[in-house]
Specification:
The chain is an alpha+beta fold. It is 25% helix and 22% strand. It has 7 helices and 18 strands. The strands form 6 sheets. The chain has a 5-stranded antiparallel sheet, with helices on one face. A 5-stranded antiparallel sheet has the order 9-8-10-16-11. Strand 17 (307-310) and strand 18 (316-319) form a beta hairpin. Helix 1 (38-48) crosses helix 7.
């Protein structure tokens, strides 16, 4: 299987399956002498960890990370950093009934047709379990970015229910199980998602990730645009079906006057932007404003509601999926989106230094 690596100078490769003994990631290209310990990585994994509320899968994984290489006496050595997370709470028997059936909306069918074999236990490599590896890589990327660049994510929509941006409060994100910046919306989502969960169904969501403090000049104007790399990064996350930068698709309904990010003279000759419709990227290059990315996550395919499908012999049948699944996988996608943003920015920051010497 190809395609298990992401990035250019800052590059990571993930390995492992949902129900295997462990999962992990190898991060290459990290500069030497950066402070890094397991305690720097663990808080981000804890943020994504399953089983923390009734709105996510009840699989109980501690997601305890171990640094196997690339760090000596608390600092990076410049060599590949290998990170491992053991799987401790697999229930493979929950998937016995679907071993020969394909879940509608899931990767079961395409994996089987491509490879002639599939790991039906939790979906194998196609499981969102793999995203823990990305979060670990993202923690290393944050060490590369330093404290000047902050990356924050929030859930802005569950099903048809959106946040009210007039009530946006970043501090509220850590006060509810949805990473929601709107306390009132979070309360409404709780009731809505309880109904979805109790019915054995699932629902989609939209995640917004914002990076502040990004310097001007990251990205290249053609095939290595910062926004194209961000779009690819977010589209690699399990269940993501759409990505937008800045105004995104809403830009299609605007006039040139409305969409223009006008500029005035700022301090020390730097421009002062009057708006940020472009999401902090113009011509594939960062403007120095907040970089804003949103992505849409489809409903979890593993549901208790019977659905029509076929089996490996082509026979028509029905399927329902037992086990422990997220009624809204978009919730735990928030820290994953943050991690992918951090990895892309770290990669482009190192590429900028290599090309321009700054």
């Amino acid at each position: 299987m190809a395609g298990n690596s992401f990035g250019t100078l800052f590059r990571f490769t993930t390995w492992g399956e949902s129900h295997g003994p462990a999962i992990g990631v190898v991060v290459d290209g990290c500069p030497s002498l950066l402070p890094l310990a397991e305690s720097d990585i663990q808080p981000w994994l804890d943020k994504r960890r399953p089983g923390q509320s009734r709105y996510t899968t009840q699989r109980q994984e501690p997601d305890q990370v171990r640094i196997l290489s690339g760090v000596f006496e608390g600092r990076t050595t410049g060599t590949p950093i290998s990170l491992m997370i053991e799987n401790t709470d697999q229930r493979s028997k929950d998937y016995g009934d679907i071993a020969s059936k394909f879940r509608p909306g899931h990767a079961d069918y395409t994996y089987w047709k491509k490879y002639g074999i599939r790991d039906y236990r939790g979906g194998g490599r196609s499981s969102a379990r793999e995203t823990a590896c990305r979060v670990a890589a993202g923690a290393v990327a944050r060490a590369v970015l330093g404290s000047a660049i902050t990356v924050r994510g929030a859930l802005v929509q569950i099903g048809p229910h959106k946040v009210d941006r007039a009530r946006w409060d970043w501090a509220e994100v850590d006060n509810n199980p949805f990473f929601c910046p709107d306390a009132q919306a979070a309360s409404q989502w709780a009731d809505y998602l309880d109904g979805i969960r109790k019915s054995g169904s699932s629902v989609g969501a939209v995640v917004e990730v914002v990076a502040s403090g990004v310097p001007v000049g990251l990205g290249d104007p053609l095939y290595d645009k910062l926004d194209s790399d961000l779009a690819r990064a977010m589209m690699t996350i399990n269940a993501v079906k759409g990505v937008e930068i800045g105004n995104g698709f809403d830009a299609a309904s605007l006039t040139g006057e409305e969409n223009a990010d006008e500029m005035r003279a700022g301090p020390e000759g730097e421009p002062l932007f009057l708006s940020n419709h472009a999401g902090g990227i113009l011509g594939g290059i960062s403007t120095g404003q907040d970089v804003v990315v949103r992505f849409a996550v489809k409903p979890t395919s593993s549901i208790l509601t019977p659905r029509r499908t076929i089996d490996v012999n082509g026979a028509e049948t029905d399927i329902l999926t037992k086990g422990r699944h997220d009624p809204c996988v978009g919730i735990r996608a928030v820290p994953v989106g943050e991690a992918m943003m951090a990895c892309v920015l770290a990669d482009h920051l190192l590429r900028q230094r290599a090309q321009q010497g700054r």
